[in-house]
Amino acid sequence: MTGRSGDVAARLAAVRDRIRQACDDAGRDPDDVTLVAVTKFFPASDVRILADLGVTHVGENRHQEAQAKAADCADLDLVWHFIGGLQSNKAAAVASYADVVESLDRAKLVTGLQRGADERSRTLDVLLQVSLDPPDAAGRAGAGPADLGDLAARVGDAPMLRLRGLMAVAPLGEDPTTAFARLAEIRSGFVADHPDAVLLSAGMSGDLEAAIAAGATHVRVGSAVLGSRPSVH
Ligand SMILES: *Cc1c(COP(=O)(O)O)cnc(C)c1O
User: Fold this and answer.
1) What is the CATH number of the domain that holds 120?
2) pLDDT of residue 232
3) Over residues 201-224, mean pLDDT
4) How many domains, in total, are found in the chain?
5) How far is the CA of 39 from the centre of ligand 1 (A)?
6) Rounded to whole angstroms, how far apart are CA atoms 80 and 233?
C-alpha cells in the first residue's frame, strides 16, 4: 500500500493498537470498544480508504459536509454518526442520512429528528450529549447532567428515536481522567434509570485511553487516524 492509503493504514493500525492496549490496561474486551473514525474536513476518498481498511463507523460534525459525503459513499456499508452541534431547523435533514445522532442536547431537537427518521421509515439511534463543563462555561455544548432525565423522557415519547446512551467531550484545560471519572458517575446514574442506554461515546485522539478506562464503548478519533485537519476547507 502506498501514498495516502499506506499513510492512513499505518495511522489506523497505531490507533487500533492504542485501543487494544487501553482495553488491556482496563481489563476490558477490545470488542466492546468501537472506533468511530472522524472524517470531517477530509474527502470522501478517505472514507473509502477507511472502509477498505475495515472501518465501519464514521463520524461527521457539519451537516452539509456530512450529507454530501454520506451520499457520495452510499454504496459503502457504513454507520454514520453525527457528532456536531445541531441546529433545530437542520435536525430532520441530519436524520435523513445519519444512523446515530450523538449530539442531542436539548428537547427542541427531538421533533425534527423524529420527523426525519419517520420520513426515512427508519429508527434513529440517539445519544444524549452531556456537558462536563462548569454550568456557566462559555460555548458549552451538551445538556447539563440534571437535564438528562427530562431529555430522555422526550426521546422516549418519540416513536422513531431509540435512546442508546450518552456522549461527552472532555473540557479543554482539564485532566481528561478527572473529567471522564465524572462522566462515569453520571453514566451510572443514567443507566440505572435507562437500562438499555448503555453506550458511552467519549475519547478522541488525545484522550482515548482515559475514556476507555472510564468505560467508553465508542471512541471518536479523527486526527490520529487521518492526520491533522486542513485549517481551510
Ligand atoms: C473532531 C471531533 C472529534 C475528533 O477529534 P480528534 O482530536 O481529531 O481525534 C471527536 N469528537 C468530536 C465531537 C469532534 O468534533
Assistant:
1) 3.20.20.10
2) 52
3) 98
4) 1
5) 9
6) 21
